[in-house]
Amino acid sequence: MTTVPRAADAVVVGGGTIGAWTAWFLRRAGLGDVLLVERDTLGQGASSRAAGMVRAQGGTEAGVRLGMFSRDFYVGQQELLGIDSGFVAQGYFMPCFGEADVARTHERIAMQQALGLDVRWVEPDETDALNPAMAPGQTLGASYAPGDGYIDPPRNVLAYTAAVLGAGVRVCERTTFTGLDVEGGHVLGVHTSAGDVATPRVVLTGGPSLAAVGTAAGVRIPVWGAPHQVVVTGAHPDFAPDRLPMVFDLMAGIYWRPCEGGVLWGMSNPDESSGEATRFDTAYFERMRQRVATLLPTTASVGVRRSWAATIDFTPDHLPILGPALGADGPIEGVLVATAGGHGMMWGPGVAKAAADLTVSGTTDVLDVTDLGLDRFDEHGRSRLAADPVTLPFPVH
Q1: Can you give the pLDDT at residue 397?
Q2: Is the pTM of this model over 0.85?
């Protein structure tokens, strides 16, 4: 039977990429007793079903800064921890298929370069030359970041599990967070299925389940889940890593990368209702398979090795949430909400570092979080911020 300590310097709810790395960063910041509470087992949720894409080519300053921090973190993991998440700098193209896309992409590249990202515009002929597996003549050019890449999701779970245990984080799996102990607007502790824990600091994470975590805490958090699908094709020489950079077809909402000699590609159906993924949508897969075959012709002649459905979280503006919990009577001092809004592995370490900083000192230099709190949403969950345009298509909630 799981037991929890009577007290902790901080409690982190959720054992996914963000929760686990937040707990690790809290220990590195000097907190003595950090408790990580997970209702299932570490990485059992979205982390274990992710595609592992790591892209700093965000559509907003927040996305770029979080992407750059996270990518650099993955690159330096081996030296820092002695274990890594399997990061591969594969290079990432975001092709344009219309004149309006070209104009927007040039504007985005200028913003990204101003923030220090190594990214450039690639003309159509060079796009074709650098993507031998792609059908030529399909694009009007692309943005390209050679340092973007991917990680191995199971290895990432292994890495953060080793990291938190090695750092002395107390991990309580199969333990459900059931509420907060609040008095006078200050948190005094948390309630869990294994008992109560006194603490002055709480970080609420949870990916697609974060809204339910918020409900238990008496905090409305506009985060929802949406079905997402991933397939891995059979192997073929055309899909050798040196012939297959990563690509995000933003128009169709499809991305791909090398995997086990084949292609891993993912898709989200914007017409599907929000909620938990319960099945693999074969009809939508067949539609998108035609699009992928147009761009990657060899995929039409190889079978699918494996496929799965996953639930991916999203916020109304596709931006992270990093700010104090807001209860019925206003902010709850000592409680922070942290989510990457569907970019858990892509932005996870950056969100986690910012969450740990904010929890310990109230400030962070990872990114400007002034507008990223819960107060940007109205009572219907609508955000006052413009949405990040570089994202998968999500249903309108």
Answers
A1: 58
A2: yes
